[in-house]
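User: Could you check the structure of this?
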Amino acid sequence: MFSLYALFRALTSTRSRRAFERAATEVMVLLDAFLRPGKLIAEVEAMRSLQAEADRIEATHPVRAELLRREAAHTGLR
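Assistant: Sure, the predicted structure tokens are below.
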């Protein structure tokens, strides 16, 4: 049988605390997206324009195209 003390110890472990912090961060990001959809739309439009520019210049400037794609990916991760 699982005692309250064992439950408390499980919730206060470093591993559980990290998992809870990650979950809380994800919830905050999701709430931010719901509360400010314009910001999310602007980021997606910026990513799309960077990708389109990278596609346009890839034949002549492959290194620059790769940098644009990385910037678009970084924007998507924020």
